[in-house]
Write a structure and sequence with these properties.
The protein has helices at about 300-330, 340-345, and strands at about 10, 20-25, 30-35, 40-45, 50-55, 60-65, 70-75, 80-85, 90-95, 100-105, 115-120, 120-125, 135-140, 145-150, 155-160, 165-170, 175-180, 185-190, 195-200, 205-210, 215-220, 230-235, 240-245, 250-255, 260-265, 270-275, 280-285, 290-295. With about 350 residues, the chain is mainly beta. The chain has 2 domains: about 10-300, Methylamine Dehydrogenase, Chain H (7 Propeller), CATH 2.130.10; about 305-350. The strands form 7 sheets. It has a 4-stranded antiparallel β-sheet, with helices on one face. The longest helix has 30 residues, at about 300-330. The chain is globular, with a radius of gyration of 22 Å.
């Protein structure tokens, strides 16, 4: 197994917290959801924004690529679920089926359906092509932080702050299973690549690995000292990465549950983590407004190329921001001496 690379390269990605990120199926693009109301599509190799999508009214909490990579779905505080064209950045549809903010979205493996989980405790299932609401599932008394389709697309798993995990039949909306899994609520859910295990990140700082067929806990990882906001499997299923309010990312052995290494660099909570499709890179997003790229193979020749490109893009953005501020100041009208009635009333000379 490759030795995790201790260096990472940061990139300022937003003017506010980055709550969600996702990699395209080919690994060439990165989508980010941030609290400045924007969804952004990034060229990973260049570290540059290809499209900045405006439409959400308020914070954006979640993004997910369609399996074919052509669309990105998002959800946020405005209660809407939106679909965007990756190539053009155009909004394809936006729908509101929830009464409160949308925390999570996930595409069915075939891409025909999209599920969303909300603060209102409901799950909506949408037709991806046109945004038709297929079904609303009710059953959680508290908000749904995570939704994820099974590998065969026939079941949907939800994780909630009501401390339960539920499994639903996608076609009928019937509840198939419910388990009390934690004491303080669930933040995220993900299936293992082979579909046999379910990964939960929890408010109490733990990560649970569950066997859905047997309905039992396989193991629990408890090295984080604060809530774990996100946990994901590597594409080969051998590693788990978790991001926490303790500002760190931990890489775990998915078989033994042992901590492999701890990555530091973010200055505030790490809300989201995602592996590249080839498993050699890890990306993270944080309250510190940065995304970071981590190389999991110290011998990977792409490291220097990506690092150089991201640093150059960051420098150019800083320069562009300074130039824009300078230009704005130059365009401001000079302050004229007070005169006339206004001047006489508020201190101007007669």
């Amino acid at each position: 197994m490759p030795t995790p690379h201790w260096r990472s390269v940061p990139r300022t990605a937003a003017t506010d917290t980055i709550y969600g990120l996702a990699l395209s199926p080919d690994g060439q693009r990165l989508a980010t959801a941030s609290w400045d109301s924007l969804v952004k599509i990034w060229d990973v190799a260049a570290g540059r924004v290809e499209h900045e999508m405006q439409g959400h009214d308020g914070r954006v909490y979640t993004v997910r690529f369609h399996p074919d990579g052509h669309w990105v779905a998002s959800g946020g505080t405005d209660t809407t679920v939106r679909l965007w064209d990756v190539a053009t950045g155009a909004e394809l549809w936006n729908k509101s089926g929830h009464s409160s903010l949308v925390y999570s979205v996930d595409f069915q493996p075939g891409g025909a359906l999209l599920a969303s989980g909300s603060e209102d405790g409901t799950i909506c299932i949408w037709r991806s092509a046109d945004g038709t609401l297929v079904r609303t599932i009710e059953g959680h008394p508290q908000y749904v932080q995570g939704v994820v389709f099974s590998i065969d697309g026939t079941r949907l798993v939800s994780g909630s702050r009501d401390c339960t995990m539920a499994v639903w039949n996608v076609d009928s909306g019937e509840e198939l299973l419910r388990l009390d899994v934690v004491n303080n609520g669930i933040n995220s859910t993900q299936f293992s690549p082979d579909g046999t295990r379910l990964l939960l990140s929890n408010v109490d700082g733990s990560i649970g690995l569950w066997d859905l067929e047997k309905g039992g806990l396989i193991m629990e990882m408890e090295e984080h000292t604060y809530p774990v906001w996100s946990a994901v499997f590597s594409p080969d299923g051998k590693m788990i990465a978790s991001g926490s309010a303790d500002k760190t990312i931990v890489l775990w052995d998915a078989v033994t549950g042992a901590e492999m290494t701890r990555l530091t660099g973010h200055e505030k909570d790490v809300y989201c983590v995602a592996f590249s499709p080839d498993g050699k890179w890890l990306y993270s997003g944080s309250v510190d407004k940065h995304i970071r790229a981590w190389s999991l193979d110290s011998a990977d020749p792409r490291w220097e190329t990506l690092s150089t490109a991201w640093q150059a893009a960051e420098s150019e953005d800083a320069k562009a921001a300074a130039e824009a501020a300078s230009a704005l100041a130059a365009q401001a009208p000079a302050k004229a001496p007070a005169s006339g009635l206004f001047g006489r009333l508020f201190g101007g000379k007669r």
